Amino acid sequence: MIGSHTIPVFYLQQFATLLSRGKKHGLVWVHEKGKEPQQRSLRVQGKQKGYFAVLREDKSVDDEAAEAEITALENECNDALFCAKSELFDWSSYAHRKKLAFYVAFLYSRATQRRAHSAKVGLNTYEELENAAADGKLMRRFLKR
After folding, report:
1. What is the pLDDT of residues 43-53, one digit of tens each?
2. Average pLDDT over residues 99-108
3. In sequence order, which ranges of the chain are alpha helices (DSSP H)?
4. Hey, which residues does 26 pair with through a beta bridge?
5. What is the C-alpha radius of gyration for the chain, rounded to an integer number of angstroms?
6. Which domain holds residue 68?
7. How far is CA 133 from CA 42, 121, 122, in A?
8. Which of 4-13, 82-91, 114-123 has the lowest average pLDDT?
9. Is 72 exposed, middle or buried (0-12, 13-18, 19+ CB in 10 A)?
10. Is the pLDDT of residue 19 over 70?
11. In 2, 55, 97, 109, which residue has its Cα 20 to 30 A from 68's Cα atom?
12. Which has the closest alpha carbon to 46: 23, 66, 29, 63?
C-alpha cells in the first residue's frame, strides 16, 4: 500500500523550514499531546499507509485511485493557498474565497480525529439499528404504519 499524507504536503510546506541545498523536503515542528515538540521531515509527517484506500466489491484494495483524485482536488487550490499569505491577496475574489473554503473543509475531512469520530458514530448507529430490528414489538409498530 502506498503512504498517504493525512495533511497535504503542499500545506505543510507553507510552515516548513528549508533544508540545505539538494534536499527535497523541509522540516516542520510537530507538537503532540504528552510529548516534547520535535522537528520532522515533510516526507514522513502525517503519512499513513493506505489511509485513503478504497475496498472494492471484489474485496480488493485500491489505494492509488483515491489518492490521485485527492491530489488533483488539492492542486487546484494551491495557488490561492500560497498567495493568501500576501498582503496583496485579493480577498474580494469569490473564486479565491471558494477555493480556500473548499481547502479548509477538505483538510478537516482528512483529519484522523474526524475519521475516528465518524467511525465511532457509524458503529453506534449500526448497533442501535440492530437493536431496534431485534425488538419485535417496535418492528410490528413500525410496519403497521
Report:
1. 777 777 767 77
2. 89
3. 9-13, 65-75, 78-83, 94-110, 112-134, 136-144
4. none
5. 21
6. 3-144
7. 48, 18, 16
8. 4-13
9. exposed
10. no
11. 97
12. 29
